[in-house]
DNA sequence: TTGAAAGCGCTAACAC
DNA sequence: GTGTTAGCGCTTTCAA
C-alpha cells in the first residue's frame, strides 16, 4: 500500500497474463496479430496491475517523445514582464486554450518555452537534438526572427501561428487580414463615413502590411482614393501617438485601427480632442481581444478566431509528426465583423 | 552532412576522448572525482562531437524527467473559451511569465495541462505514475477541487498558486489578502470617505473571504462598525449586479471591490446611475490586472506581484524535487496600493 | 501468432 | 581516479 512502490512494468503484466513481454507490448500498441483470447487476458492483466507504459523507456527505443514544444519567440527580454511581453496579452491564453483543446485529448502536452535571447534559441535547438520534442508550435513576434528558418532547416515538424515575415517554406495558420480590413471598410462606409483614415501595424510585419493594403484597396473600391494612415506598433501608446499624428493632418469621420490595443489608445486621444465616438468618429479595431470589451464605448472590431486557429495549428503538427501531412501547408481563417459601440 | 544523422552518444564521445563511458558521464554530470586532464579531454570531445545527453535514456535510469507540469484545474469545461476560462485572463500569462523566468534558465520546461473533467484528472494522475513529471505547479479555480489533496496523497512535489480552499498539507504561494484589503480601507479613509461599502469575491474562496474580512476589520479600526457588502463572482457582470444591489441599500462614497474585473463592472453601473468616480464614489480594485489600466477612470487598485509569486512557486517545486525543501511551505507576498484615477 | 533476445543511451555500483 | 558491467522498461527483428 506504500505510495512509492515501483510501478508495474511490461514484464510484470506479462507474468500475470502468462505471456511474453512482446505480446503485451503488441496489445498495448494495438498491433493486430494477436490471438483474441490472449489479448483479453493481457487486457485483464493490465487492468489488474494498473499498468501504465513508461514513456522514457518507450521513447528511448522509438526516438519519439510524444511531446511538442509551444515556443514563444520574442526579439529581446522584456524587463517588465507585466507591461510588455506576449504573455501579458490575453491573446496568449487564447492560443494556449486552442492548442490544449486538441492536444489534451490526444495525450500530448505542450511544453512551454520562451526564446528571448540568442542563448535561449541555441538551447531550443539543443533540446530538439536531444529528441525531446516531436514537433514545434511557434509564435514568433519579431519579423527578423531567424527561428522559423532554423527549424525548417533542422527538419523539425513546425507550424507557426501567423505567416512568417521572411518568406520561408513552413506551415502556418493565419487569418485573412485583407478580408478583415475589407469588412472594416465596408462597415465604416455603411455607417456613412465620408472620410476615413487608418492606423496600421508595423509595416515590417505581414499583419501590418496586409491590414493596411486590404483596407486601402477596399476603400478605393468605395471611391476613396486616398486613405491617410499612421504607422503604429500594436501597443496602446503607439495607438495614441499615431492618433495624434493623424489628427494633425486631415479631418476624418471613420478610423480603422489595425488592432484593439491601439484602438483603445485612439479612443482616449479622440476623447481628449473633443471628438465623440461614434458620433464624430466611427472606430473599428482588429482582433476582438479582451480590450475590445473593456473600453468605453466598447469596440467594434474584426474578430480573429484565435482558438480555432490555434487548434488547427496543433492538428497540423500532429499530422506532420505522424507523417500524414508531409507538405508545407497553410490554413487561412476568415475573420468576422463584431459590431459594438464604437461605430 | 545529412540532417537526420544519428546524434552522438556517450559511447561516441568516450571513443573520441579515449576514455570510458563512465568518465564521460561523470564529466557531463559534474562529478568531482575526475582527473583535470581527462576532464579537459572529455570536454574537448564533447565540443567536437556536439554531444547532447539523451534525456529519455537518462530518465529511464534516474527516474527523473526534469519536467514539471503546470496544471490549470477548472471545475468544468467552458464551452466558450474566450468568454470564460482562466486562459482568457491575462493573469494566466503573468503566471506563465513568472514561472518561465526561473524554470527556463534551469533547463526545466513546464508542461501545460488543463484539468477540466474527471477524465482529465485521472489522466494527470496517470501521467504522474508514468514518471513523466518531477513536480506539479497547480492553479486551481474551484474551491471544491479534489486535486490538491490527491496530489499530496500521491506524494508528488506540488506547489499551488494561492492557498487551497480546503485545508490541505500542501505548499503554496499567496498574497496577503487582508493586508491588501487594509491598504484599500486606509486609502479610502484617507481620501475622506465617510461611508464605504464593498463587493466581495465568492465567499467559498479564501481570496473572497480574506479580502472581505480584512477590509471589514480595517474599517472597524477606522470607526466604521458596519460595512455593507454584496457578494460577487469575480466576473465583470457579477460586479455589475453586485453594484446594483449595493445601490439599492444605503448610500456610500467609497467602494472596495475584491478584484479589478468586478470593479470595471462597478464603474459602469455607477456611471449609469449618475455617480461620478471619484468625485461621488471612490473606487479601489484588487489585482492590478490589465483591466485596471484599460478602464476610465483608470483603477486605483491593490497590486498582486503575480510574476514574483509565480517565480517563487517555481523555485519551491524545484527545491522540493531536489530534496532541499522537504517541508510543506507557504510564501506570502505583500500587496501594494497603486493609486490611479478612480480614487 | 508468439517468444527470445538484442539493444535504445544512460547511470551507478563495484572492482581495479 | 577510472573502467567494467549490469540493468532502467520498452520495441522490434528474427526464429520458431
From TrEMBL, chains A, B:
InterPro entries: HTH_LacI, LacI/GalR-like_sensor, Lambda_DNA-bd_dom_sf, Peripla_BP_I. SUPFAM superfamilies: lambda repressor-like DNA-binding domains, Periplasmic binding protein-like I. GO terms for molecular function: DNA-binding transcription factor activity; transcription cis-regulatory region binding. The keyword Transcription applies. PROSITE patterns: HTH_LACI_2. Keywords: DNA-binding, Transcription, Transcription regulation. CDD domains: HTH_LacI, PBP1_LacI_sugar_binding-like. Residues 8-62 form the HTH lacI-type domain. This is DNA-binding LacI/PurR family transcriptional regulator. It comes from Kutzneria kofuensis.
